[in-house]
Write a structure and sequence with these properties.
Rossmann fold; binds pyridoxal-5'-phosphate; 4-stranded parallel beta sheet; 7-stranded mixed beta sheet; single chain; 17 helices; 399 residues; globular
């Protein structure tokens, strides 16, 4: 990986991206289910999240317009992840019970009378938000849950999961180590893994996680039909794949799709650089990289997300933490009549990527590739709010 600390930003223009990739049927099928929104609407206290138009910030950045889909208000979980976890659990239960369970109350009542399933433990590895979402679903369904987290997880994110009633296991190592640990523990104990990442032989549930994220776009699809550039932050790449699917297969206009990752935890970027049209090459980032963008601190791409990402993401960029903190402040100290938006370190990374593209001399070529200009309509997704409130306060109080 070399002397990454000295590098401000990197970019890779993907030669494999296509305007509308043709998807194999096992990849496409989960997205074609018409009932995803119907199910999400049946979750307790469901409300769609808002897409804000930030006029003052767009003026300040000298771009045409800036839309922010704000997932900081997703239930009281402050992150988008419940859309994937809940849908994947619903699909898994349907398969286990061999019946249609269109809405959440159907799941609850069927589970209550299923002697086999109502004792089963749900488990996953997480940097925070996905595990909290699985724990919330387990609580709603009265199932036990055990959630594995990397050793550098901050206490607020651990407490958020414990408060859902789940057991938390801190692994001595990184997110990838937590994934390895969850696989071993689930095998040993007969637990059900509900993972947002996938590996050989474990693909169905992560495919449903990716499909579940479509609700995020379908909630305000009318606003997303004239986007020129969408920036999406990636961890294992599930939300990147879902974004890429929506904007290549569903939206009327196909924007430039840009993946944003932390400099030293950029498995999608590294994999894109190494992949050729003849061969996929998923690169794992070794060790325990440090970044404040905890939700993006994943070492290995999801193998079911990758085929979509490989053929649909136009540009991969990596940014240092300073761009995430700048973005948090811009969203917090909104100008004029702009909506003030609470954004966590991973939530703000899409805007951080845009700031980097606008400001970094090293990214001039990337800027030109996507035609970023004062006429560009840009969409970012604030994927989380302040899930580490102490860090958030520190960032916004620091001048
Ligand atoms: C807030 C936030 N944004 C983005 C991501 C990246 O999602 P994915 O791992 O699907 O790429 C995560 C992952 O946990 C997250 O928590």
């Amino acid at each position: 990986m070399g002397a990454i600390c000295n590098i401000m930003c990197r970019f890779f223009a993907n030669p494999l991206s296509q305007s509308k990739p043709v998807l194999e049927s096992d990849i496409e099928k989960p997205f074609l289910d018409k009932n995803i929104m119907l199910f999400h609407r049946s979750l307790p206290d469901y409300l769609p999240t808002t897409t804000h138009t930030l006029k003052a910030l767009a003026n300040k950045l000298n771009i045409g317009s800036l839309l922010v889909k704000d997932e900081s208000t997703r239930f009281d979980l402050k992150a988008f992840k419940i859309l994937g976890a809940s849908w994947a659990i619903k699909c898994w239960l349907e398969q286990e019970l061999s019946m249609n369970l269109p809405e959440m109350p159907d799941l609850i009542s069927k589970l209550a009378t299923s002697n086999n399933l109502r004792q089963i433990t749900l488990t996953t590895a997480t940097d925070g938000n996905h595990g909290r979402a699985v724990a919330r679903m387990a609580r709603w369904l009265s199932l036990p849950a055990v959630i594995y987290m990397p050793s550098d997880t901050v206490s607020s994110r651990i407490e958020n999961i414990r408060n859902e009633g789940a057991k938390v296991v801190i692994v001595d190592g990184s997110y990838d180590d937590a994934v390895r640990q969850v696989r071993a523990s689930a095998d040993k104990n007969g637990w059900q893994i509900i993972s947002d990442t996938s590996w050989e032989g474990y693909e169905t549930i992560p495919r449903h996680v990716i499909a579940g994220y479509q609700t995020l776009f379908n909630e305000q699809s009318e606003l997303f039909q004239n986007i020129d550039i969408v920036l999406i932050q990636g961890g294992v790449g599930a939300i990147t794949a879902s974004t890429a699917y929506y904007f290549t297969q569903v939206a009327t206009k196909r924007p430039y799709i840009i993946s944003v990752e932390p400099n030293n935890s950029a498995c999608l970027f590294e994999s894109a650089c190494a992949t050729t049209h003849k061969e996929d090459c998923l690169i794992s980032i070794k060790g325990s990289p440090k970044t404040i963008m905890a939700g993006l601190n994943c070492g290995t791409a999801s193998r079911v997300a990758w085929p979509i990402i490989r053929n649909a993401v136009d540009l991969f960029i990596t940014i240092p933490d300073t761009y995430a903190t700048q973005a948090i402040k811009l969203l917090h100290f909104a100008g004029d009549n702009d909506q003030q938006i609470e954004s966590g370190e991973s939530g703000s990374a899409g805007l951080g990527g845009l700031l980097a593209l606008l400001n970094e001399p090293d990214l001039e070529k990337a800027r030109n590739t996507i035609g970023l200009s004062d006429r560009s309509n840009v969409l970012i997704i604030n994927t989380e709010g302040a899930t580490d409130p102490a860090s958030y306060r520190q960032i916004i109080e620091k001048l």
